[in-house]
Amino acid sequence: MRSSNPVFSRRGFSRDNGQAGFTAAPAGGPAVGTNPYATNPYAPQQGTQLGGPQAPARSDVMTIDDVVTRTAMTLGTVVLTAVLSWVLLPVDDANLGKSYGIAIGAALIAFVFAMIQSFKRTPVPALIFAYAAFEGVFLGVISNAVSTYISPGVVIQAVLGTMAVFAGVLIAYKMRWIRVTRRFYGFVMAAAMGFLILMAVNALFALFGGGDGLGFRSGGLGILFGVVGIILGACFLALDFKQVEDGVAYGAPREESWLAAFGLTVTLVWIYTEMLRVLSILQGND
Q1: Alpha carbon of 128 to those of 6, 74, 230, 249: distances in Å?
Q2: Backbone phi and psi for residue 145, each to the nearest 5 degrees, phi listed first
Q3: Which residue from 63, 106, 181, 246 puts its CA 20 to 30 A from 209's CA?
Q4: SS3 label, residue 21
Q5: What's the CA gap between 140 and 131, in Å, rounded?
């Protein structure tokens, strides 16, 4: 089973018939089927009992610390370039068109880098950092525009909201209130596919018909679809956490912690943009 987030598909930690992907597992246990890293000499051996003899710790398998460190580096790149673009690309009446053009160009470049990484069999840190840098430029300009023309405090609210969603999903996952199963995965993927199709249709109507297309991104419908987008992002966070948990349990190679950082960054960016959209609609209607 392949793990994806709402925007980009990406490689997972398991291998199935020679293709990279994510093998779902019952909550609280390893993935269904054989260990995809059974040939990895550093992977935990099946049948090892707690308190029994343990294999010596190895330095070239993925750990939670690796994931945290690389995620912090990737998100830090997003934040740094967002701040720089906020300062260096002023959003005002004189520079609005230029800034928006740069933001759209940066978003497209980030999308290309993300898609290249998604289809590679191994992580390439340079591609991941490039994605993070250009995504930060896009977010910096858009956030500045929303803060300037809608509400000065909306960006801080969106950041806090994103952090709250992340913390809430992490707690729910650790407490096993969220159980990542094949059915959960299938439901989330189907919902995300339908959501993206609707957004694509809305964008086409807006492009050729003008205005806001079918109205899915403004008014009451905009709020509804924004909330749905946030919920989908939260669901993909749960898939991300499961993917990391299985990667550590199976002794995935250390380099694959970059995939976890990439996936978590994409998901958090998705949640932030949806949060910013909902808050901007709410405050714009005040």
Answers
A1: 17, 7, 23, 24
A2: -65, -45
A3: 106
A4: strand
A5: 14
